[in-house]
């Protein structure tokens, strides 16, 4: 049985890849985990992450996570909330 996937509100300022990385960040994934999940290099993850932080006007992963949840860009269900708390 597949796990439920959090809804991601598409943001016009973020690329599809940046949106996917933001989703992974909210779930607490490391750069290595993101690179494996998205089948890209860790260097590519770092580049996308840097661009993502600049676009969101934040300086850390935790600020990006908080903004994504608070602004409704990533909506977590109870399954995901249980995993990250």
Shape: globular
CATH architecture annotation = Orthogonal Bundle
Main β sheet profile: 2 strands, antiparallel
User: Distance between termini?
Assistant: 22 Å
Q: What percent of residues adopt helix (DSSP H or I)?
A: 55-70%
Strand order of the largest sheet: 1-2
**Residue share in β-strands:** under 5%
Q: Count helical runs.
A: 5
- Return residue spans where pLDDT drops below 50 for at least 5 consecutive residues: 7-11, 79-85
**CATH fold category name:** Arc Repressor Mutant, subunit A
Q: Into how many domains do the coordinates divide?
A: 1
> Average pLDDT across residues?
81
CATH superfamily, please?
Answer: Winged helix-like DNA-binding domain superfamily/Winged helix DNA-binding domain
Number of strands: 2
What order do the SSEs take from the amino end to the carboxyl end, as H and E?
EHHHHEH
Helices and strands in order:
Elements: E1 7-8, H1 16-26, H2 31-38, H3 42-56, H4 61-70, E2 74-75, H5 78-84
Antiparallel strand pairs: 1-2
Helix pairs in contact: 1-3, 1-4, 2-3
Give the tags.
5 helices; mainly alpha; single chain; 85 residues; Arc Repressor Mutant, subunit A
């Amino acid at each position: 049985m597949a796990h439920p996937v959090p809804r991601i509100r598409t943001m016009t300022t973020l690329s599809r890849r940046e949106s996917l990385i933001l989703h992974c960040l909210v779930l607490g994934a490391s750069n290595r985990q993101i690179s494996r999940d998205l089948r890209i290099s860790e260097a590519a993850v770092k580049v996308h992450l840097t661009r993502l932080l600049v676009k969101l006007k934040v300086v850390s992963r935790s600020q990006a996570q908080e903004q994504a949840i608070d602004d409704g860009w990533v909506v977590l269900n109870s399954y995901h909330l249980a995993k990250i708390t």
